[in-house]
Amino acid sequence: MQHFPILSIVTLFLGAFLTVIFGSKNETVRKFIALIASSISLILVLMLIKPIMIEGNIIQYWLGNWRPIHDWAIGIGLEVDALGLFFGIIAVLTIFLSVVFSFKYTKKDSETDKYYVLFLMLSGAVLGLVFTGDLFNMFVMIEIMTFAAVGLTAFRNYQEGALEAAFKYLVLGSIGSSMVLAGTITIYSQVHTLNMAQISALLFNNLTPAALFAFALLLAGFSLKAFVVPFHPAAPDAYMSAPSSVSMAFSGMVNKAGVYAIIRLVYVLFHAMDFKSIQILLIIIGTITMFIGVTMALAQNDFKRLLAFHSISQIGYVITAVGVSTALGLTAGLYHALNHTLFKGLLFLTAGAIFYATGTTDLNKLGGLAKKMPQTAAIFLIGAFSISGLPPFNGFVSKWLVYQATFEANMAPVTIVALLVSVMTLASFIKVAQSIFFGQMPKEFENVKEVPLSMRIPMWIMAILCVITGILPNVVTKYLVSPAVSAALNMGKYIDLMMGSGYAEKILGKPIEIPNIDFTLAGYWNPVAWLVLFGLLLIAITLVAVAGGFNTVSLPTEVDDPKYDVFFSGEASEHSHVKGNDLFWGLKHDLRHYFGFMHDAHSGIINDYALWAIFTTTIFIVYIFLLVP
Amino acid sequence: MVVLKYLFNVLVFPGLLFSALVGLILSGLDRKIVARMQKRIGPPLIQPIYDFFKLLGKETIVPRAASRRTFLYAPVIGLLALVTVSLFIPIFKYTAVSTVADIIVILYLLTIPAVALIMGGAASGSPYAGVGISREMVAIISYELPLVIVLLTIGKQVGMVLNKGAITFSLSQIVSYQAEYGPMITNWRLIPAALALLLIIPIKVGSVPFDIAEAEIEICEGPLVEYSGAPLAIFKLNHAIKMFIMTSLFVTLFLSGKGTGILIVDIILQILLSAVIVVISISTLKAITARLKVEQVLKFFWTYPTALALLSLILVWIGR
Q1: What is the pTM of this model?
Q2: Does B162 touch chain A (CB under 8 A)?
Q3: Which ipTM score applies to this complex?
Q4: Is A213 helix (H, G, I), strand (E, B) or coil?
Q5: Taking the CA atoms of chain A, what radius of gyration do you get in angstroms?
Q6: CA B149 to chain centre
Q7: Is A372 on the interface with B (CB under 8 A)?
Q8: Handedness of CA B297, B300, B302, B306 (dihedral sign)
C-alpha cells in the first residue's frame, strides 16, 4: 500500500526506458510494453481508492527513506491525499484509454517507438506531479511534462504547422517553467525547505513580500500550464497538430496537472483562499477564460482546433468554481475537471477517428459521415451533449453546481456568463455535427469505413462514463469529489502526516480544524426523475415503432425514386452542403467587431504571446502586492 | 401502485395527453385570435387536432441523404423532454412528481426540444435545414441570455425572503412564496422581468416575428423541410406543447397565488391564465408584426429584454 504511488509512477518511466531498449525494432513489443505499463499503473492507482478516498488516509512515502530530522524535511517525499489521488485517477484513466486508442490510430505513422517513449514519459511526469509532496520535484515533473509534450506536438512533423506549434509550446512552456522555478527558489530562500507540507506550515500567517512574489510567479507559471487565458495561445496549435490520442492526453491530464497545481498552491501552500482578493482574481481569470475560449471556438474551422478552444473554455469553468472557494464551489470545480476529462477525451478521440477514416479534420471539407460511421456519430453526440451540459449527461451536473456556487457567492454576472458560455458551447458543437456528420456527403468520402474495434472501445468506455457520472451524481460526489474537497480544505492533516503528528499544531499554534464540507443544495437533479424518464423513453420507443421507425420495409430508402431526394429547388446537389463556415451568420455579423478584435489579437506571432504571458505575470504580481494584506 | 401513479402522471395528467390536448387547443386558439385580428374567420378551435391526426396517417418519407435513425428519433426526443418538463411545472400547489423541481433543470430541459429540432434538421441532409438550424441556434443564443437573467432574478427574490438571502432554484419554493406573499407580478421590482419573459415566449415557441428558423417563405420551414407523416406530426405536437409549457411556466412564475385548493378549479384557472398569456404575448405580436432579420433578432434580444431583466435583477439585489 505504502509503495503503490511510487510504483505507479516508476512503472510508467520504466516502460518508457524499456521501449527504448527493446521496442525500437518491433511494433508488437512496444505496444505490449505500453499496454502493460499503463494498465499496471491504472490498477495501482485504482487500488488506492479504498484506503484514501473511503477510509480517508493519506499515504506518505520518503524516497530513500530520508525522513525528516528534528522536524526538518530533507529528502524528497511523495504525499498522496484525496486531492492528489483524484487527479491521479483522472490521469491514469486518460493514459490507459489513450494508449489503447493509439494502437490502431498510429498505424500510418513511422517511428512509433518514439511516440510511446514520449507518451509514457508524459504520463509518468503528470502522475509524478500530482503525487509529489515536494515543490522542486513538482518543477522537475513539469519540465519533463513540457518537453515530452513539445516532442509529441511535433510528432507528425510532416504536417503543416506541427513544428510551428511545437516551437510555440516550447517558448511559452519554458516561460512557464522559468516562473515556477523562480517562485520555487524564492520560497526556498525564504523558508529553507522544499517540502510542501513544511512550506505550508511555515508560511501560515507569515506571508512576507518575498513569499507573495513567489506566490504570484507560481500562480502565473501554473496558469500557463493549465492554459488559462491569456496564457493560452500555445494550446490550440499544439492540440491541433498533435495526434488525437495525445491531444486527449493534453486536455485530459496535462491541463489538469496545471489545475491541480493551482488548487494545491492556493489552498494548501499559501492558504490564500481566505483572502477575498485572491478569490476574485481566480474568478475573474476563470470567467475571462471561459468566455474568450468559447467565442474563439465559434470562429474555428478545424475540428481539433475548435476542441482546443473548448478545452480552454472548460478550464475556465473549473478555475472559476475553484475561485469561489466554498465547499460547493470546490466540489463544482473538481466535478467539472473530472467531467471535462471524460467528454473532452471522448471528443478528441472522435476527432482522431474522423482523421483516421478521412485524413482531415477540416470542417469545410467534411460532411454526411453519420451514414458511414454511425457509432462514431452516436459517440460524438454523447460527447457534444455532455460538454453542452444537456441533461442527463455529466456536463449538466457539474455546470449546474458551478451556477449554483457562483450565484450563491453573490456573483450573478459570473453565473450569467457561465450560462451563456454553455449555450455557445452547444452552438459550436451543432456546427460540428452539421458539418461533419450530417448534411451532404462529398464524393471523395464514398468509401469511408467505421474505425476498427480497438479504437471504438476506448470511445465507448468514455461515453458510458459520461452517462454514468451524469446519472449518478450522488455516488460520484460521495466517493470521489467530496474526499478531494475535504483534503483540499484540511491542510492541517496534510502537514501532520508528512512531518509527524503534532507538527502542525506546534508551528501554527492552534489545534487543527476539521473542515466542514456540508453544503445545502438549493434544489437538486433528483434521481427519482430518472424513473420517470426511463418510463418516458419506453413509451417513446414504442411510439417510434408504431410510426414505422423500426420497420425498414415500409420506408425504402434505396429505391431510385425522386421523392427520396432532398429538395434543392433546382440547384446542383454537390454545391448545396451547408459547411461549417456558413453557420451562425447572424451571430458573427452582430459580434463582428469583437470577432475582428480577437482575430487580430491572435496574430500567431510568438513574440506577442510571450509578451502577453510576461505582462499578465506582472499584473498578477502588482495585484497581489496591492490587494493581499 | 406507485408505478401506476407514475404511468398516469406521464401518460395522462399532467403529462402527454393533458399537455398535448391543452397545447393543441391553445395553438388553435392562437390561430383563431390572429385570424380575427386580421379580419379573417380562421379555422375552428380544434383544427390543430385534426391536422395532427391527418399527418399521422400520411406516408413517412426518409430522404436518401438523411441519417435515418437521428432523423426519426429527433422528434421523439423532443417530445420526451417536453413531457418531462410538464411533469415538473407546478399547477398552483400541485406538482406531479414529488421531487425538487429546479428552474435550471427546466431551462436545460427546454433546450432539448430545440436541439432535437436542430438534430433532426441536420440529419435530413437538406441545405434549407442547414440554414434553418443555423438560425435556430442563433435564436437560442439570443433568448437564453435574458431568460437566464429572468430566472435568476426570481430565484434571488424568493431566496431572499424565504431562505435568509441564500438563493433558491426550487420551483416549489417559488410557488409557496407566491402563496404567501401574493403573485410575483404584484411586486413592482419584478415587472420588467415579467415583460422580458413575455417577449421571450414567442421566440421560444418560434412564432412571428421571431420565427427566423422556420421562415416558411424564405427557407421552406427550415429544419422541417424534409419531414413528412408521423415525425412531422410529432414536431407539430412539440410545437403546441411548447406553447402550453412556456405560458404555463409564466403563470407559475408570475401569476401563481394561493389557488382555490380544489385541484380541478386550479387546473382550469391555470389553463385560462395560460390562454390569456398566449393571446397577449403570442397572438397579438404575431398579428401586428412582420418577421425580423436574423441579425436583428440577436440584437433585439441582447438589448431590450436583457436590459429589462437586468433592471429587475438589480432592483431585487438592492432592494433587500
Answers
A1: 0.88
A2: no
A3: 0.84
A4: helix
A5: 25
A6: 17
A7: no
A8: negative
